[in-house]
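Batch 3, record 17
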Amino acid sequence: MEKIFQALSSTVRRKILAYLSGGSMTAGEIAERFEISKPSLSKHLNILENAELVRREKKGQFIHYSLVQENLANTLNGFIQEVCPVSRPLKKESAEKASQRKA
Amino acid sequence: MEKIFQALSSTVRRKILAYLSGGSMTAGEIAERFEISKPSLSKHLNILENAELVRREKKGQFIHYSLVQENLANTLNGFIQEVCPVSRPLKKESAEKASQRKA
DNA sequence: TAGGTAATTAGTCAATTAGCTAATTATAGG
DNA sequence: CCTATAATTAGCTAATTGACTAATTACCTA
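Prediction for the assembled complex:
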């Protein structure tokens, strides 16, 4: 939980997860999409793996990274339930704002 | 979005949100529940307010803090949708793990 | 208006983070 | 076996974070 929220606090790492939601990619393919050095990206990938948000699989010379969807979804949904429990519905005012924004 | 995930990366701040899910509290009431100094807590509250996850309302000598549920729920749900889209359902293996854990 | 309480702001400091370059590891292929 | 490629680890630095104490602001009440 701590590790997961920590991992999600970086824009780079959230973007990596978004890329991986389209299918697994090698470290190099991910690196191409960012303007930071490969070692820096490697660190980000380490943090994501350590939080069990991605899985790493070595295939010959390449390392393929893929998303671990259920950890992400379970943690975030769990937190939403804890802080915004369904048993305690939104107040009218809040509900209105929520439907206005929808983003 | 950036501010919200940044705000959520601290255990202290996530706990504050959890407390506030039970109803609004003054800064002092929140401070009682932690072992850190009031100024440190004040900073955390500032970060949460800046991320628009809590609202501050002054009543005489006291400042009442309350949760802004819809911002939290909208942002987290939006991110889950982006990274774990329903149109791309979980693979069998992943779905099994997810149901095993449930935490 | 003086004293007390609630809370924040200011300023300092140690620890962490995020980036970089250089070096290392591991694999593929001539 | 040697070279090239993919990626990581090691080591460094600047910037940020999170804690503290001291000082300030704001409000209440005698």
